[in-house]
Amino acid sequence: MVSRLIPAANCRLCPRLAAFRQKNTTANPDWHNAPVPSFGDDDAKILIVGLAPGLKGANRTGRPFTGDYAGDLLYPTLLKFGLAEGTYDERADDGLALIGCRITNAVRCVPPQNKPTGPEVKTCRDFLSKEINGLKSLRIILSLGVVAHNAVMAVFGEKLSARKFKHASVHNLPNGMTVVDSYHCSRYNTNTGRLTPAMFHQVFKKIKALG
Question: pTM to 2 decimals?
Fold first, then answer.
């Protein structure tokens, strides 16, 4: 099972993130407040990699992109393109199931101001590497944002100078993996018009066309 490849609930590898989790545990003891496990099919062909758990989203609910605005765009899009079934109700127990895909984050713990540091991303990369290598049917990775893109490329040992992030770009790697980029489906990006639902849907049309 791929789902076991997560940091321990009391992970202290990143002292700043551990302290922030503890602060939130004190303020909101009924929240998840721990590294957030991946969600989806262990036999997934598509892996979606985000930045990190949102404070009132995945850090609260314990499921990636669940309970915040990013999930309000991501999960309906997955349902639209046949990559999920059920109903997204912003709860980890809403019964939603993913089909042939899986969701994780480059950093598993919520960072202050939603901004992990470079060393924190690097520290958590081992878990991302185990996630990717543990998915034996994996063929396509969707990177949501430049941090996720860079983390994925680092796992594969690719030079960023040759594999720059660009929205809707497709990177065919020598190992047979395909990495597709998209702006992150955050409230900021959608509110500013940097990413529209139509643009996001076009990315998924490309993914579906890749098979």
Answer: 0.96
